[in-house]
Amino acid sequence: MLVVLMLGITLKSYSKNYYVKSTGNDNNTGLSDAQAWSTLAKVNASSFSPGDTIFFNKGDTWREPLTVPSSGSASAYITFASYGTGSAPKILGSEEVTSWIYDAGNVWYSKNAVDDPYALSRHANIYFKETNGNIRWGRAEKVEKKDLIVEYDWAWISNHIYIYSLTDPNARYSGAEITQREICVDMNSKEYLAFNGLEIAYSGNWGITGDIPYSELSGLIVRNCHIHHIGIKESVGAYGLSIWYSDMLIKDNIIHDCGRRLISLYLYNQVIHPHDVIIEGNTLYDGYHTSGIDINTNAAGSWKNIIIRNNIFYQNTNSIDAVENPTVENIIIAEQGTLTGSISDVYIYNNIFKNPNYYSILLEHASSINIYNNTFYADNPAATTLNGGFVGMSGPGSYTIKNNIFYNNISHSTNANFRCLTVASTSGTAISDYNLFYNTDESQTLVSWHSTGYTLSQWATYKTVSGQDAHSPTPDNPLFVSSSDYHLRAGSPAIGTGVNIGLKSDHDGNPYKNPPSIGAYEYNSKPASTVIPVYQSSVVENATPSVIEMTYSLALASIVPAVSAFTVLVNSAARSISSSSVSGTKVMLTLATPVVYGDNVNVSYTKPASNPLQTSEGGQASSISAQTVSNKVNAVVTPPVVVPNTPPVAVVNYVNGNYSGFVGELNASGSYDADKDNLSFAWKVPNNISVSAANSSVIEFLAPIVDVKQTYEFTLTISDGKVSQSKTIPIEILPYQPGLETAEVISIEAGDYQAPYLPYNAIDGNIGTMWSAIGGDQWIILELKVSFNIQHIKVAFQPGQKKESYFDVLGSNDKENWEPVLTKSKSCAFSGDLQVFEFPPSKTDKEFRYVKLVGQGNSLDSWNNISEFRIFGFRHKNPTSYEDLIVKIYPNPVREMVNILIDEPTFNPDFIKIMSLSGKILYDGKVDPGIRQLQVPVDFRQGIYIIQMGIGNITVFTQKLVVIK
Question: What single string gives the DSSP state of each residue in 450-512?
């Protein structure tokens, strides 16, 4: 199978070629460029035979999904490819905005109308195309124009996109892509398909995927495709490729900027067994959960025989929205869920892993995982402070790690938890040997073995305790060509110190020697003439104003050119050079007279015929002209005048009366310092209240559930770095609608659950238990004892959560016809405690017997967790009951005056009483004979009371009365 995939698919002589271009016509035959079709809809509606190829014209764009209508065969794939000249044909899940209209302030709106990207099932984004070619993610969707305050902010209002821009966006951007569709390419459960040379982007959930299969599928090739910008960052579902085929080749693609995973090999409760997969030669970067490949199964399915080789994985260190530093792995291999499935025989070799911020490879519950001849390099200041590193292993399984270079340039002070290798569990089998480890910071943990960390100085102890790395060289600098070129230089301890494990060629395709070098490159696989030292920068330091220090990318040989090879200009005038010297990557030029503060300095180098700057391998530095020298010579400074410090002033804006179950805000952004010093903020928060932050000028809090008014004190301390000031803010928390009844739930059911997190846990009155289910559209249904006019619900989520949960609420009276009540609802982002969700006014006068909550995952993963679900409103009364027939009371609830109508002619009461629930009589009145209608003023406080009417000492009529104020 692998040989067939690598050599290509043999097409039958009777196969046909079809052509599609934007200027075509769907009434054509499609069998030539002159007879080309126009739309993907035509392709989707056609039928193809094994061996057929559908060509898309380069330079053209289709803004509609491709749905594959036919399967190929094992010997003759159906291929979707490109023809012509120009850029790759594009299949996009978006509509483009190219014209903006000024609104007000710094707000502009799109000329054309579009649908709301956030209305898609997993939400979606907009993407700004800058004139320099960069593509920028929009930030999280805002609600109103007033929320648009920084660049890349956007909102969808009245069918148009509104954005913030300091300058005219018609000049600032070449356009913006507004996601409108879930998917670009739907394989539609068809087999033996090949996709070659396509660009796929801007969809909400998937680049290329198909229906989740529950039977085996085979035959898929994806080559030379560019897949990018899918979904929203850290979405519960946004994948470049989401695929489940046996006999797959994923080769030479560029995949990046997908909101969850770049390549997802994930079995969602499917009992299938895909096998024989090759993923090679791809460049994979900037995912927001997995910046590479996720291999997973949470059912009895299995993956087997997977090769991941010759790929480049990396994570950029910057972002532009609220997801500044997600925890991202390059490869995840994990069998989860019931642990009845399996992942086995995975080979990961000749790959480059650069700048992970969590783990390069994370392994959990997998067998026969082989990690050979990879190069791992970390210099990422945004690396998460969680335990992370290059390779992490936990749980049952068997793992072999050999011939790898681990180069860690993350200091202990930046992240003390970033390790080259972590073996967390004693239940698995790990073999590590012939690896070269190196931490530039010797105090940083090198290896963690069964929860014990070992630094460079503890290398011998680690080997004795673990029994691992017996043949690995002593940790040392591998001597890469540069921080971006991981070929080996002469003298590298990685040269020839590996073990022959059967690999034939390295990342470049050059043969391995025997024994091989450690890492992804065999030594000298790159000719010495191409290893050229590159000029980096120059500087004059304050301590040595007569010395210019030039820095090159590689260590230089001790060969010093004559000073005539260099030219230094100071304020455009030549400055004499007394001497020159070379040390490591530095060239030092000593000037006849020193540089002073404010001088403009530049340096030139002309490569001489003899003794040029060069590496020990003979790579010669090129000439450079008029390179700016950073002048760090200080000016002569007069001692500053000491100005007395003025303490800062704390100013806090807030609403004193906050209802329980709602989010409130404390805004101290108006605090100021007369000296204009930078201020820091620290909040002391009551123990039982969750807040969004503790060190921000503006914080949000979730008001706890209370039965009576309570006051909580928050304390703000602000500091200008010299003195601190504190301010106490009393916040009153008020009970919300205390007069409502609580609906009695007589049964609960769920579409799915994860034991022991049963559906009943959501109504057991214990916030410490919960119902849990994974995936989208997971539901629970509550049946009420009687129909209810529901006013609001209170929902608690996972205790202690720091994420948003997404859900919808529907109501029904027959459990078949459901009416949407709350759509696209989301929980507080920093607490899982009880929160109030109000029913809209259009729904509060309706009666429901059944209430359904549909979970849509959360902002971190696809789990749905409900700890408590409580329903509040007014009980539906049976209109045929005797009490309703004889007396009607309205309105109920009441604010000031209640009306009483006596409908039954034979009922002639002579008294009316209103009492509290404790039995205290608050109103005692006489009813004159013949009176059928009367009004009673209600001047009681808010609460629940009882009305009684009768004759003599006999009470005939009793009804509950709800008073609201």
Answer: TTEEE-GGGHHHHHHHH---TTSPPS----BSSSS--PBPTT-TTTT-S---S--B-TTSPBP
